[in-house]
Amino acid sequence: MLTRWGLAALAPLLLQARGGAVEIQGATFFTNPPWRVELIAYYNTVWDPQPDYFFTLELPADAGAPLGGLTIQQTRGSDWWFPYYVERTSAFVGRPRAEGRKLPVTATFEQGIRRFQIRFDPPVAPGTTVTTVLKPWTNPDQADTYMFAVTAWPEGPNPSPAPLGYATLRIYSLFY
């Protein structure tokens, strides 16, 4: 049990609300982070041309901070070289086939480590379902289960990441 003196000793570590974001010792955190990501692809055979990969997450209303960005990194799959149209990365409020307003994003892609960095400007408000769309040139050339580690970043100074887990994409052969 914390006494009055123990609480006073912890005062520098306590949460501060600044502009809607929660900070601890100068780092921004989600108080209730999103906890999962869903990946939907409507075209899932090898070499399908210009598919869309929809990554959807729900930012809780009590998240404590807006969503500033996402990191999406391929961690598994046979094909490590299929290219993306990075400049066509997009986002919207809602889910695939139930799209709401578009959200402005900037995206970068590091081919060597297969990692996207996506930034929302302005950040996404708590209580929003957001879908980010990645657009490869084609699906991978090899059938396999492809996995993507997804991390959410709160908006604010020195953001602390919230890992959302793995999104799974199954690519099938045309000849099975």
Q: Main attributes?
A:
five-stranded antiparallel beta sheet; 13 strands; disordered N terminus; 176 residues; 1 helix; mainly beta
Radius of gyration: 19 Å
Helix-and-strand structural type: mainly beta
Helix content: under 10%
Mean pLDDT: 89
Question: Could you give the order of the helices and strands?
Answer: HEEEEEEEEEEEEE
Distance between termini? 62 Å
Strand order of the largest sheet: 4-5-11-7-8
Query: Can you tell me the overall shape?
Result: elongated
Instruction: Give the number of helices.
Output: 1
Sheet having the most strands: 5 strands, antiparallel
Number of strands: 13
Q: Which stretches are low in confidence, meaning pLDDT under 50 for 5 or more residues running?
A: 1-19
Strand content: over 45%
Write the layout of secondary structure elements.
Blueprint (H helix, E strand, L loop, with lengths): L3 H7 L5 E3 L2 E4 L2 E3 L8 E3 L12 E6 L8 E10 L13 E6 L2 E6 L1 E6 L4 E10 L4 E6 L9 E11 L7 E10 L5
Antiparallel strand pairs: 1-2, 2-3, 4-5, 5-11, 6-10, 6-12, 7-8, 7-11, 9-10, 12-13
Structural account:
4% of the residues lie in helices and 48% in strands. The chain is mostly beta strands and 176 residues long. A hairpin with a 2-residue loop joins strand 1 and strand 2. The longest helix has 7 residues, at 4-10. It is elongated, with a radius of gyration of 19 Å.
